[in-house]
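Researcher: Please translate sequence to structure tokens.
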Amino acid sequence: FVIAQGVLGGLTVLFLLPKEISIAHACMAQLFFCTTVAIAVFQSKGWAQGPEIVEDSHRPSQEAIAKVVPFFVIAQLLLGAAFRHNATGLVPHVVGALIVAAVMLIQGVSIMSAYPNHRALNRAAGFMMSILGVQLMLGLGAYAARASVTANTAPNGWLVFATVSHVACGALALAASIVTSIQVFRHVRAKEHVVSAAGSTSNSKQQATA
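Model: Translation complete:
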């Protein structure tokens, strides 16, 4: 990721900010950030303690939702980068924001309602929805700041702050969705897998006692 990001940055400068490369450069940075966040999760004390298996009774399954939510967020980040680089208009980005907000809320609410006592899942889902709320407010602020700037005026400090904050929070939203999906894959199992895991644990205890 670091090498690819450096190459894209060099191409961006060399070819004077071509839209396609600039958009790829922006998204690559966020994917790199999410990779470091995932590594941090894998090295955490909570991860070392092992999974706390719970049954997946949701329809569609929590695993199925966890597979698609990060891709919705990535697609929205692409639309945001395209809008900033004048490759698309505002409408696709706004529509995408509504769709992404809906799928993230569906995932977060379903996790917290199904597993209210599961610490890892609740923390991940709660943080994801909190970041989503902040991101939506920053998006409105960035739009208001952009609307206040005309073609004959230079970007003001509020516009720069709102835009940068919105982009940074977008990276956090993507990371939060990925961490939530990681926790779902780690802790949530279909019913038959939960029974199998319980049986394996029981056998292991019996062997240890013997």
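Researcher: Any highlights?
Model: The first helix runs from residue 2 to 14.
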